[in-house]
Every structure is written in C-alpha cells, then in structure tokens.
Amino acid sequence: MRRTALVTGAARGLGALAAQRLAAAAWDVVAVDTDAGGLAATALRSPNMHVRTCDVTDPGAVADVVAMTGPVQRVVHTAMIAPVAPALEQPLDEVEHVLRTDVLGTVHVVRATLPGMLERGRGEMILCPDHPVPGASAGAAASAAVAAYADALWAEHSGRGVTFRCCVVPPGLPPRLLLDAIDRSLARPAGEVHVVQAPGAALRELFTSRLARRPPAGTSAPR
C-alpha cells in the first residue's frame, strides 16, 4: 500500500531528519520548505522524496502542493520560527510574521490535509511548535496557540480515525530523540495528544548512547 507523508520545514533540523527517516522507511515523502538548497540536501540519495518550495503562510501555495501530492497519510509540520527579541521591543511586523508562520501556517497545512484524512478515516497529524525560550515572546505565544489548536482538533474530530499529536520541540534536544518520542507516542491511546519528552529522560538517553559508543578502557578511539 502506498503511504505518503508531507513534511514541512524539511530543509534542516527536525523536519529534514523526519523526512529522511520516513523516506528510509519506504514512505513517499513530499518535503516542503522555502529553502530550495536545503531541500535538495535533505533529499539527496532519497529517490522516494519529492521536494516542493512553498511558504506555509500562503494558503493557496499549500493547497497547490497538497493537490499535486494526492492523499496524505501523515503530516509532520515543523515549519515554525521563534526569533529572540525583548517582548516590549520586538517590531510588530516581526511579531506578525511569527504568528503568520507558526499559527496561520499550521492552520493552512491542517485545512489542506485533514479533510482528506477524515474522509478516508485514517491519518496522522503531527504538529511540532518550538518550545518557549526566554526572549522569544512571540514564539512562545505561537507555540501555546498551536498546542491549543491541536487540542481543539482532537476535541472536534476524535474517533474518526485520525491521530493527533503535538510535540513541543525542546531547545538543545537532538532531533532523533524527539522523533523517537513521537514514534513511541503513536502506539499510545489516541487521546494522548501531547508528546512529552522529559528533559531529564532525554539527557539520560543521550548520555547512555554516548557511553555505548565509547571505546573500552585501554583502547584508542579511531581518529
């Protein structure tokens, strides 16, 4: 059975790794971003990945990509921004850009893909807002809005075959650990919308994995 995933923000970071993992797992992947060069790097050596330059703040452009893609079984939406600036000094046009990208961009992606999932009675909608950090007040507001939007989607459409997940991206957490947490969450009850990756657990996992790669005492690590 053909499985298609739409990954936004796929030119770098979490989105790039999500697209590459899905392609390696034999999904047909449509990777979306505004950065054509970054998309090309993401898709390198992945023949089942198709790249589309698209700004998620443009609902028409998002709809066009989805129309070309066809039925989508999984959405991994990571196209979020969170510039750092003092709350009382951040230019209003920058605040508006953050909200348009993170909040309205999420709405555009959901509206373009969710109706088809509901009609088919299956699908996975994974939203990945940035974790609020000091000095990124607009990003914090946008992150809270996306999390609340995920709750609203589940409240309105639970029981119709679509799984909703919201995974706030903690600063400094390796993307692979976050994707591991998302994968584990998909095996849990559908009502557990929020993927919680405890920082302590994530750091322990990272530390353990590094210890496992460390050469035994008395040997030299390869250079």
Helix count from the secondary structure assignment: 7
| Main β-sheet description | 6 strands, parallel
Shape by Cα distribution:
globular
- Binned strand content: 5-15%
Structural class by helix and strand composition: alpha/beta
Which stretches are low in confidence, meaning pLDDT under 50 for 5 or more residues running? 199-223
**End-to-end CA span:** 44 Å
Q: Tell me, rounded to a whole number, the average pLDDT.
A: 89
* Strand arrangement, major sheet: 3-2-1-4-5-6
Element pattern in H and E: EHEHEHEHEHEHH
- Proportion in helices: 40-55%
The counted number of beta strands is 6
Based on CA atoms alone, the radius of gyration comes out at: 18 Å
Please supply descriptive tags for the structure shown above.
six-stranded parallel beta sheet; alpha/beta; globular; disordered C terminus; 223 residues
